Amino acid sequence: MAKTLSRVVLIGASGTVGSIILKALLEDPTDNFTISVLCRPSSTATFPEHDSLKVVKTAFDDLDSLTNVFKDHDAIIHASAIPTLPSQHVMIKAAAQAGSPKRFILNEFANSYDQPGLPELEQFRTPKREILDVAKQTALETNDAFSWTGLATGNFLDYALVKYPQIGVDIRNRKARLIDGGEERFSATILKDIGTAVRGILRRPQETRNRMCHVRSVETCQREILDVCQRELGEMGDSWDVESVDGKEMYERGREAFARGERNGMVDILVAQLFQRGAKRSIVVERKKSDNDLLGVREKSIEEVVREVLKNF
Question: What are the NmrA-like domain coordinates in residue numbering (predicted)?
């Protein structure tokens, strides 16, 4: 097995995904990761004191400065909450120029760029395709000096259930909005498993070189999530306000609202993308085709996921 990519630059370490990745890299001392957290000069983010961690500040579009930072590192992980195409493009160029083999883990978290999708969502997929094309072309042009990996995870289910009741199950207010009966199945990954998967990529550089990896923590549907929430809380029957919504009507309503410039219209479009009956748009990867085993991600039951989520309420 190839040597672990242990000298790491992490971009976006204070964000939702980046902070989970940072925690995973610091978790097991046997990996011997050394981590340079890259921040903008204006950043006020703070990080845990750790012998293996240092903070480096530089502009994200300064090619010379980035190239200098990336020297003597094995891998660059881009997990910024604002994955702007120009800065990621510059960072790929800097990684290629920095010398010695470099792995660039792209900001491809969530759904894969090539998943079937509603046309209104192309505005989000197009930048992903463009940056992936840049990474592929850079790898071809530099031979062994640059390689890339993408990680498709689906939605972050535990985070969504706590922060975004629009996903259809509002635990805090005991409400549910089931699209087309809530039976459309989707795959998702909990945040902790995203950190585990990124650590797995660094541990298995050869097997993850120049390709998209796909992981999943669970496969479920809205109805299952609601049923498990009710069972775990002991609140069956009429204790929840459950609304049934037609997926096609929701999509059309969202389209019309978005066309009028109402940003909330995109929420309805995203929900229809996930849950419309028979659309088959939301399984990021089938279990047998996933990279779970390679990257150390264990598939879970929806009961296990929901029990952990309920600890937040």
Answer: 6-235
Distance CA 73, CA 113 (A): 27
Please give the single-letter amino acid code of residue 156.
Answer: F
How do 146-152 and 102-105 pair as beta strands? Answer: parallel
Query: What is each CA distance from 195 to 25, 199, 280, 301, in whole angstroms?
Result: 8, 6, 27, 19
How much is the CA Rg of the chain, to the nearest whole Å? 20
Report the candidate in 25, 29, 63, 60 with the shortest Cα–Cα distance to residue 42. Answer: 60
- Domains of the chain (ranges; CATH) run 7-153+191-215+291-295 (3.40.50.720), 157-186+219-285+298-310 (3.90.25)
Angstrom CA distances, 48 to 9, 37, 52, 95, 139, stand at 16, 11, 10, 26, 34
Computed over every residue of the chain, the mean pLDDT equals: 92
pLDDT number for residue 275 = 93
Facing residues of 149 across strands? 105, 211
For residues 193 and 188, give the distance between their C-alpha atoms in angstroms, rounded to a whole number: 10
% pLDDT > 70, the chain: 98
| DSSP symbol at 260 | T
Q: Measure the CA–CA gap between 35 and 54, rounded to whole angstroms.
A: 6
b vs e for 212-224, b when ≥16 Cβ sit within 10 Å of the residue's Cβ? bbbbbbbbbbbbb
For residue 226, which amino acid is it? L
The whole-number pLDDT of residue 53 equals 97
Q: pLDDT band at 84, cuts 50/70/90?
A: low
Q: Which two tokens stand for residue 167?
A: 């996903």
Q: 190 phi and psi, to 5 degrees?
A: -80, 155
Pick from 239, 221, 209: nearest CA to 145? 209
